[in-house]
């Protein structure tokens, strides 16, 4: 009799061990070994823990880096450490002295966790920790709070609709949005990503460290958001504000082109008879500006948009073209004006033409100044 009871007990313990090895969640009134999870339901709790309202998921995102900003293909890469936390009161731990339980791969299929969907996603790469046997996601159950904490290191390629109309004084707004699409907002709801919950981040915004200095970036939370498709869904995420660092464009474009415009005014000091010298100077400067504009569009295809930089280049070309027109007008007068006046007296019109050069020499800086002021007003007030 006692022998049979002993055999039955051994078999029962063996069944419990096998079930735990398989990852099945045991009922809390069953005998257990180790620190396995248990539930009053038993078997599997792979459905959302809905109780008096939707499951509330708190997200914690720390941006590690933001790089590979590809304005031609309208995307960028962001490296993040994402953490998601939700409460599941159905689960307990039989060992009262256990504060947390790491969910292993054999138990993972039997507990519910959200399938996070990243909007505007082009590509994603996950990373595993040393000693994690290739596991890229870490799920921990906090026993006292009855809360799951899911952490994962991700590298995401995100689509962003860059608008280059105000280049190089443009300000871009991009989003990193995530949620779940297999459960509507009545079942799963995101409480938002608040910056005060981000580990080492204490302010509402911060400057992201980056290996490139093309943009200065600030990151904000978008809070709790919803969208309606066939049903109402919940999502949250980050709003990334990027302001272009325009300093290098002043040195590469604005200042050199302004110098070319100023040099073109020297043509008014060259004698009218020096056709090769005067026309050579103006044509050379004009071709330099045309070549600069063409090469810029070839190296940066997204500059096909006629923006602020294009307006500046076109304005400089027009201002250099005006002395060419003025000189052409002078040559026309010299060639077709009569050599004698109505009284038959020989006349020399070159002094009058020279005075016209001096007038243009004083007018062109005024024209350029008006253009610069108008350009600055357009930059300041354009949307």
Automatic annotation (TrEMBL):
* Bilayer topology term: Multi-pass membrane protein
Q: Which InterPro entries match?
A: GABAA/Glycine_rcpt (IPR006028), Neur_chan_lig-bd (IPR006202), Neur_chan_lig-bd_sf (IPR036734), Neur_channel (IPR006201), Neuro-gated_channel_TM_sf (IPR036719), Neuro_actylchol_rec (IPR038050)
Annotated Neurotransmitter-gated ion-channel ligand-binding domain ranges read 49-218
* TM helices/strands, residue ranges: 249-272, 279-296, 308-334, 355-376
**Molecular-function GO terms, alphabetical:** extracellular ligand-gated monoatomic ion channel activity; transmembrane signaling receptor activity
User: Where in the cell?
Assistant: Cell membrane; Membrane
Keywords associated with the record: Cell membrane, Ion channel, Ion transport, Membrane, Signal, Transmembrane, Transmembrane helix, Transport
The secretion signal range is 1-23
- Give the primary localization class: membrane
One GO location term (cellular component):
plasma membrane
Supply the name of the protein: Neurotransmitter-gated ion-channel ligand-binding domain-containing protein
């Amino acid at each position: 009799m006692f022998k049979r009871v002993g055999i039955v007990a051994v078999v029962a313990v063996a069944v419990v061990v096998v079930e735990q090895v398989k990852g099945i969640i045991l009922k809390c009134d069953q005998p257990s070994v180790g620190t396995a999870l248990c539930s009053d339901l038993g078997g599997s709790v792979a459905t959302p823990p809905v109780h008096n309202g939707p499951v509330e998921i708190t997200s914690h995102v720390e941006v590690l880096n933001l790089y590979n900003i590809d304005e031609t293909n309208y995307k960028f890469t962001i490296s993040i450490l994402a953490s998601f936390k939700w409460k599941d009161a159905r689960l307990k731990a039989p060992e009262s002295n256990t504060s947390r339980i790491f969910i292993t791969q054999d138990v993972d299929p039997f507990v519910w966790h959200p399938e996070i969907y990243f909007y505007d996603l082009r590509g994603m790469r996950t990373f595993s920790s040393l000693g994690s046997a290739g596991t890229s996601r870490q799920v921990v159950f906090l026993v006292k709070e009855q809360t799951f904490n899911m952490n994962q290191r991700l590298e995401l390629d995100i689509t962003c609709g860059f608008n280059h109309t105000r280049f190089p004084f443009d300000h871009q707004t991009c989003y990193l949005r995530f949620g779940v699409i297999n459960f509507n907002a009545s079942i799963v709801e995101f409480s938002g990503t608040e910056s005060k919950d981000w580990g080492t981040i204490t302010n509402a915004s911060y400057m992201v460290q980056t290996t490139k200095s093309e943009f200065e970036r600030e990151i904000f939370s978008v809070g709790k958001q919803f969208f309606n498709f066939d049903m109402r869904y919940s999502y949250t995420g980050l709003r990334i504000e990027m302001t272009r660092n325009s300093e290098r464009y002043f040195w590469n474009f604005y200042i050199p082109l302004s110098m070319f415009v100023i040099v073109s005014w020297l043509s008014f000091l060259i004698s009218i008879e020096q056709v090769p010298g005067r026309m050579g100077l103006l044509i050379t400067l004009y071709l330099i500006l045309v070549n600069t504009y063409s090469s810029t569009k070839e190296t940066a295809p997204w500059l096909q948009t006629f923006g602020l930089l294009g307006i500046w280049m076109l304005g400089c070309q027009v201002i250099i073209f005006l002395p060419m027109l003025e000189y052409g007008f002078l040559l026309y007068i010299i060639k077709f004006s009569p050599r004698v006046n109505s009284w038959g007296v020989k006349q020399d019109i070159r002094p009058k033409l020279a005075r016209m050069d001096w007038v243009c020499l004083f007018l062109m800086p005024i024209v350029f100044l008006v253009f610069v002021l108008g350009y600055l007003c357009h930059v300041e007030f354009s949307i």
